[in-house]
Amino acid sequence: MAGCYDRDTRPEAAWLWEALAHWTAEHGDPDTGCQPLNGTVGKWVGGGASAMTAWRKGQLWNLEWFAIVRARVGCDPDTCDSPYADEDELSRKLERADQEEKAHRRSALAPSRLPAPRTGTLNTRLTGMPARPARTAAPCVPSDEDEIRVALRKVDLADRRTVRAWEAVVPLLDDPGRAGVHLRDVYVTRKAQKVLVKGLRNQLVNRGSQGSAVLGEPGTGKSCVLWGVREELREAGWTVVAVSAAALLDAPDHPADLKFRELVAALEAKQSAVRAQQGSGRVALLLDTADLLLHDDTDEGRDRLVALIRRARALGVAVAIACRSVEARRLEEREPAGIEALLIKEHLEGYDDGRTAASAVQHVGAPWEPDSELDRAVEAHLRVFCRDPGLPGPREGGGHHGRGPAEPLVQRMRSTLVYAAARGLPLGQLIRHPLSLRMLFDVYAPAGPRDRDLDVTDLFREYWAARVTEDIRHAVFGDEPTDEEAGWNLSEEVRVLGLAMLREGKPELRRADAVTALVAHTALRRRRAERAVSVLLRRGVLRKVEGGRIAFHHQAFAEHAAGQALRFAKRGLVVTADRVTDHPDDLLLAEAARHAFHIADREGVAGWYSALDKLMRHDHAATRLTALRIHAGLRHPPEDAVRTAVETLRNADPWQTTSYMTVLTGTSNPAPAAWPRTLRAIWEREDRQDRRRVLIAVTHLAYQQPDEVATFLSALRLLGFEERELLDCLPLGRDLTLLLLGFHTAAPEKCASALTKLLNAAVAFRNKPVLLHTLAALSHLAAEDPTRYGKHIAKLPELLDGLQEKAWRASLDKLLPAAAAAWAAGLRTATVPEIEETVGRLVEDLSAGSPGPSAALRLRALAEVLATRPSRPVQRFLKLLADAAGSPESAEHIAKYLLAPLLSQESARPGVAAARDWCRRHLRPTETMDVEQGTTGVIAKALDRDKVPLPAETIAACLWQPRDPDRLSDSSLRRWLSDPWPHSLTVAAAAGRHPVAERALALHVTTAPPATDGYAVRLREALGRRAADQPDRLLGPLHEDAVRSGDLTGLKRLALLGPEMLTGVLEDPGHRETLIAIGKSLQESPAGLKTIGLRLEMLAATQGGLLPVTVDETLAWLRATRNGEIQKTVLMGIGEQLHRQAVLWREQDPLARLEPVLRAVEERGGEAKETAGPPYDHHGRQFMLAANEAYLLRIALHAHFDDIESRPVAEILAPLEALVFADLPVYLPEGDGGIALPAWRRRFQHLPHLCCRLAAAGHGDAARALLDRVLDFTNGVHPSGKGNWRERLADDWRFYLRVVSLEDRERLTDTILGFARKDIFFARQLVEVAAQGLGDISPELYALMRDEATPAALMPALRSTASWAGRAGHGGQWTEVFAEVA
């Protein structure tokens, strides 16, 4: 078999067959250990035995089969020394062999070019080959089909490599399939995944050029999110191409594994194939690590990335990329309109702990919210990493063990994490970071860390000890290394690799360069150096990257490795300080320096202060930021270092103080002699946000250093809460709870008295947020010390009854759940007789008269307590309370605060199940039922909540259901369709699949003649309201009922809902058709419904604004009616579309075709204004509003579609300027709300697009003159310069201001000052976009801060921007690093 090709004429193909012989003969079938049969190989590749015979004889040509066989037999560089084990080499051989095959076929078609025949091999192959179809391309040129086939193969190979890299969470020594930790085992669905999937689906509808992007810092899980997106899309039938940007990197000594044109060709081929099969192309490109293309000093990588996104979107391929946030700023320079014109961004941070949910206040003080991202991630890691050795793994037949196994090891690990997270310790913050959580389990599982007080530096050092110093495996049982390599101490080697990456300026190396660096800077010989790299790959410290490159398993650890090297080098810290001062914008170097100083501090190394002092006193803000981040993580700083840090923080920028406190709160036991002084320096700046961050930082320190925290808070006199300003500085939500819990730990007596003063101050100063979150904290304080805080809870009814002022009434419903949680804390351990006594007192209060807030508090707390109680007492208590509901007010109170909250909880709880059963037994549709009071009134009001309705399934589960619903007569069903039965319950129960309600609703729809009484009208309105939530079950009956009855009440109710409430309806094609039909029905109705009908039709036709309206559709809608309100609606929608997607109208000649119609609308509006006179009737005013919209749309059309190349620019701009700068008002009467200050900016909303077009065409002066005239005009109509509308106006011009900032850097300071004199908001925007586009503009910023002409209002923007401007995500090459640090 290995001799089917001659090595002289077909060397690449011969190499492939030799490789195949090696794989099948020397490795063999992994199941049997023997050389596989043809039939076995056929099963591997999806062919038959005869095809394998022909392939082995050289009669078939399929390059993909080689890669499949290699992967199946497990030939890998770590276990096989043959040249056939390298996957990258195989990829190159496959490409070259394919070129050989093409050349061979061309030779076969042109005999005169054939070489002299050789003996046997070539002639035998030619005569044995099957006949090939004739080719249309010239014999000397490869056909397009061949190139596409090669591109497809390369893309598929890149896809497999990318996905394999994503899925390998923990690399193993021998058998990844048996014991490996797969990403699927620990992945949890993130919010970013849902956003990206929705964005990709929207891209198929909206044929604009925007893609989607997930941006985040290293280790936040961007690649994992792309993997989750891929899985979800593939399950939905999409074709997904996943590619790492590393495969696209091109270097002089190593060409790219995949060229951009090959990727585009493959995407086009896949799109065509999918469209041919499915009728529509659902293809997505997921590009990982896009920041690698933004690291080069040239713009080539950036331009290629932009071109790739644009080209893929032009093909109709949906695009999503993952990129680091810092590198993404480089796209700002490429796109004049900003990155938003290219990508819709979703920022990814750590795991969400659920604190932003609406119900989060109920769980404040817990470590995380139930079913949050963090909760699911912790449980997944516990399930995989912390099982006992005798239990099967998640993919070894054991499956998932529900929420998590109950082994002691799991409980110990979970309790450690819960303790740390609930108290705000650094470990609790650490686990919110996906990479840190994975490393934590990899190092410490199954028993957990020895110390609950752990920070990121400790974690990296422990990981170093467990993976670098030696190989200690905790992740996978039964996979411990058995050879001597497990004991190799590779610390020196890893430090050398860390320095080598600093030398390259990026966190990756070519594998050959890594080996060379080890040989040059260690005592290893080449063979041993190569083996050391292999061992590090096997341990998971390093990972392979496409193109023969390697990288640390994550960039954060690469920075730590470099920091280790700098700390242990003789002159490492001193040289590092010099390098940082010379390159303050190098973020990679800055992080490595931070690790170096922190390691030196933890290990007690002396003599590093002078280097840190140099950084702290440097004149560049970025350098001082690096110094402050270093200082925040120190545990043993000298006195001089503390004094210098205090001086620096007193004059620091907001960005610097925020970064300092972020590192401080993430540090375990920071220096007790330092942080009280540094935080006091920040507090004395008297900035509200800074003070709030100080208190949050103190919160995290309270459990580590309680005495110091108590002293610090007392010294600042924060515990009396006598000043209103102090309340405004308090942190809210979970942070306030943690602050009070921490203060309780530090000084219980002082905390109790402070809590009393805090509650009184919040009421006195009417600070609702502080009162809300203090009440939420009270329940957790009571759980910690019920004796000390019982008095506070006992006073809650009196406190709430005292909030009877008008200012508090609207907030009571928000305060009650938090206060009820505290009140319930005392009832959770109560016996049944004690609860019955509480119920008895409630019955007396309800019977006495109108219940107040204190009764609502007790009822709401009772709902929390009864949920976990047995069935019989729960139903007895419900009966006692319901019998006391002798008035509608008391029935409403019980329903709102007790029964509805109880029914909304998990149905598995015994008390909840009992309450539902009680409702079913007491509420039936009868002619004599009372829905206002008594038992039936309480149940009906609880189920028929309007503002916060219960889910349809819950309502259906609470209603009576006969044994045989099909046997009910029509007369019985009509009780569900008539008073006194609540109409909304029938609709909601039908949506929840209640069989009787479904039959009743069907009877209502099909009754002839249709019901027209008031009940039927109200039922149709409820049907329209619920149809948006349950379109599959209710939208059809709603439309059918409207057609049969002619009553459009329900359709009107549906059409008035906003686009966000109709999302579920708009995503389904069938539902969209129904909405269009509903919209047309409303338009054909009497006056008053045409506008909402057209709005609904436009919403459905454009799928909520995703699918752009065409010029033809616009003309049809405008000509179909003379109704001013309808025309206004159409014109407003078109104006909004042009602001986002004007490019889609360029080929439709919109200005010439629409201008006559728009002028006609304006003429009608002008006539109405002149002839009607004030006071204007509704129709006259609608004509004027439509004319105003037509006038604004003409401005937009000129701005986007005027041909600025056809004649002198002044002549082109004259008609537009006449429209834009016309005297106010144009078509609206004086004093009309349509010309209020916020609406004026709509005149100028589209002009930034025109200015960008002018600048691109070489008319920059005309663009600037137009902007100056806009500023002069707005200053003339509103000279004070105040108001939010001015700020929003400046935001509209942001992308043109970016063009202004790039035009002439030498005059940037003069330009900023010029804008500041005219409009401070424009000046602020210009400062920010200039920093994004130009990078380090520190000289200009500091010059402006020293200039006396700079307005004081601009100083905060200058200081804030100076903190981050110029920070780069990549570094310059430190070519002499080894020599300088030695």
TrEMBL record:
List, alphabetically, the Gene3D superfamilies matched.
Answer: P-loop containing nucleotide triphosphate hydrolases (3.40.50.300)
Region spans: Disordered: 95-140
Out of the domains of life, which is the source?
A: Bacteria
**InterPro entries recorded for this chain?**
P-loop_NTPase
* Name this protein carries in UniProt: Uncharacterized protein
